[in-house]
What does this fold into?
Amino acid sequence: AQSVTQLDSQVPVFEEAPVELRCNYSSSVSVYLFWYVQYPNQGLQLLLKYLSGSTLVKGINGFEAEFNKSQTSFHLRKPSVHISDTAEYFCAVISNAGNMLTFGGGTRLMVKP
Amino acid sequence: GAVVSQHPSRVICKSGTSVKIECRSLDFQATTMFWYRQFPKQSLMLMATSNEGSKATYEQGVEKDKFLINHASLTLSTLTVTSAHPEDSSFYICSARSGDTEAFFGQGTRLTVV
It folds into this structure.
């Protein structure tokens, strides 16, 4: 079984400030890791993913995440946020032998002017 | 990336009626489709997994007779909410995979039962 924990349900931040959204996972097998963004009343859009290779992954909209196997973490970062980044962010994992994404509880990023 | 189209985006129905939601993979063949339900300010909860040509596998606690899932072709899966009640009001999202690791999501359907 696998699980995903997003430690912060809400993260308020001022525009142009840096932000980190935390994600920790647990799994007995190797996993692939994803971050998705959801704008109001919309589906999910993939921000970035880690499958293998370099542990620092760059995604769309200036986001990046770092896979830390020893800490079982995959935190999402952006050096300078915009108002348009206000959305819900979901961390998700899938085992390399599995078929189903397991989502974290989500983190609402609220960017203030 | 691949495109998954979900229709309708919003639907309002009367209590006791049935509603069908369609999920189509537009430019790839989806061997597996997933249906999620999302409550306000909460994460996505997997309802069921469907493979083309076979019966859907439902998660614990999901009523298979109430949420009918059909995956008749490699590009289409449908979710029918039967005898809808106000507590079925929610945001439903489908996802499709072609055997690769990445899942592509539909735009979601906001169901309101009045």
